[in-house]
Amino acid sequence: MKKSYPLFLQLYYLVLLFLVSVTLFSTSCKKEQEVTLPVITAISPDSAYIGDTVIVSGKFFESYAEDNFALFNGKAARLIDGNESQMRIIVPYGAESGPVVIDANHRISAEFPFKIRSRGTVITSISPTSSEEAPLGSGVVEIKGKNFRTNDFLEGKAYVNFTNSERNTVFYATDTLLMIGVPQAARTGPVSLVQEGLTFTGPVFTVKEPSLASISPAEATEGMTIALQGDALFSINGFSINGQAINNYSVLSNTEAQLTLPAGLGTGDFPIVMIFGDMPITSEMKITLKPLTNIISTIYYTDGNSTYRRSIDGSGNEYNALLPISTSNRCMTVDRSGGKIYYGGFNTMALTNLDGTDFKVLFQTDPTGAGIVTDLEAVNGKLYWTDSNNNQIKSANADGSGTIQILYGDSPSDQIMGVFGIAVVGSDIYWTDQNSQKIGKGSIDGSGTPSFMTVSGAAPLFPLDIDAIAVNGTIRIYIVDQVSNINWGEPDRILWGNVNGTSVSLGSLNTLAPGTGGISSTQFLTLDPVKQKVQWADNSGYSLMESNLDGGGIITKSIILTSYVNFFIVE
């Protein structure tokens, strides 16, 4: 049976429930009203420069500094440290006078007024005022004024703008003086400073564009040096003719420059183009390029970084021209009939025309990337070379087709220990081995086991280059023996011996021109089968030497080399 209560008790419980509900609602509202907002009571100092440190005092900040954020007229500032009542803050770049507020873990304070002070930065002068006195890329400009922020400029937070070249850093700074190098890309226009997010504009820096007034001589050939007269030449950072960069040039003064003409420029009338910053300026002055004539001797040589063609005409004039190739090479060979030069280097085989144009990489000489070509020959459409890093003799088609064949050195039984030079004679290959101090012999197709030539008497101490020539039905082998590599201070020598038929004996080796002083420091030789001459590069005197095949008639050729020769070919 359902239990019932008297009416007065029911009314009592209803009133009690109403009072409890009102009490709970009142307590909840009171708790919401107790959320306190941070209060800023002071900022010291009450005004500051951008980048200065100020102290913000108040109450109800978060106890951990990282839970507080400061906004200077909407610009976020960096807090150094702080607690519930005080924080150290850096006035942010770009801030302007106006309200400061503190965000304490999403509790936002009321605004507090703050003034950003102006430093009154002023540029009073720049010196020099033009590129004639302060050339692009090398000149220095002094910027004078007041209220420069020294540390900001030295730390790269503030910088200098030239027209067409922004955000340039200074190398010297005080409150009243800045020193800066003139950037290569600068153009005529005002110099300005950017600090504290503000730009301060100064006087105009005038950039004078280079110009040419004369070329002497007006007609020239490759290898010749021409003189240029003009104005504002110090601002030039390069030249080109017929689309080819001129790497060998010097600017002697603001009005004088010299260019040495490389090979491969072609023939005809061409304007000289001056590179001004990143902009080419085509001069109205033209050079007439003519072909070489009456050339009686040509030598190609490399110093390992650059390759040159040096020619001599019937009147004794020399023309030393840099070939326009963009790779280093250790060795090369010239295929006159095919009109090509082949270059071997660090894992690369390449070719160009005889004037160095149309550079092309044929192939990588080793699939592992570890090949080093130290000597090279081109014979009947094939290339033969020594790989000194892998101690192998290799061959490939001269047009780059097909695959590379390892002729010798892929088997321990070949006993190749330190291969360097190579010579191809008929169906045979000869090579030098520095470590075993021997001369190897094998077939051009790689068949059979290689042999090592026997000698009577003294053997080579450190054999490098090797070449061969037919003399009265006999093959004569010539070897550069770099004695100085073994016995310091002793001169190098060239040895030679004869090979008869299939013999592997060189007999008793002969020394070419002993005691004449004509061979002192050399690495490479070449043989002239038409004139029956031996030629070698003397690195001690940078000269080209020549003798008869027996060492007689030794002379110094009129061709004078310009640097240490790593490899050379004489036509």
Topology summary:
Elements: H1 7-33, E1 39-44, E2 47-48, E3 53-59, E4 68-72, E5 75-82, E6 86-90, E7 98-104, E8 107-108, E9 112-116, E10 122-127, E11 140-146, H2 150-154, E12 159-163, E13 165-168, E14 172-173, E15 177-181, E16 187-195, E17 198-205, E18 211-216, E19 219-220, E20 225-231, E21 236-241, E22 244-246, E23 249-251, E24 256-260, E25 268-276, E26 279-289, E27 295-302, E28 307-313, E29 318-322, E30 331-335, E31 340-344, E32 348-353, E33 360-364, E34 373-379, E35 382-387, E36 392-397, E37 405-408, E38 419-425, E39 428-433, E40 438-443, E41 451-452, E42 454-456, E43 463-471, E44 474-481, E45 493-499, E46 505-508, E47 510-511, E48 525-528, E49 533-538, E50 543-548, E51 555-560, E52 567-570
Parallel strand pairs: 2-9, 19-26, 42-46
Antiparallel strand pairs: 1-3, 3-6, 4-5, 4-7, 5-6, 7-8, 7-9, 10-11, 11-15, 12-13, 12-16, 14-15, 16-17, 18-20, 20-24, 21-22, 21-25, 23-24, 25-26, 27-28, 27-52, 28-29, 30-31, 31-32, 32-33, 34-35, 35-36, 36-37, 38-39, 39-40, 40-41, 43-44, 44-45, 45-47, 48-49, 49-50, 50-51
GO molecular function: Wnt receptor activity; Wnt-protein binding
Protein name: IPT/TIG domain-containing protein
Domain IPT/TIG: 38-102
Uncertain spans: none
Shape-level CATH architecture of the domain at 122-205: Sandwich
- State the total count of DSSP E strands: 52
If you consult CATH, what is the topology of the domain at 122-205? Immunoglobulin-like
Top CATH class of the domain at 122-205: Mainly Beta
The helicity comes to under 10%
CATH superfamily membership of the domain at 122-205, which one?
A: Immunoglobulins
- Looking at the structure, what is the overall shape? elongated
Radius of gyration: 41 Å
Q: Helix/strand-derived class?
A: mainly beta
Count of runs of 4 or more consecutive helical residues: 2
Strand content: over 45%
- Characterize the main sheet: 9 strands, mixed
Give the overall average pLDDT.
88
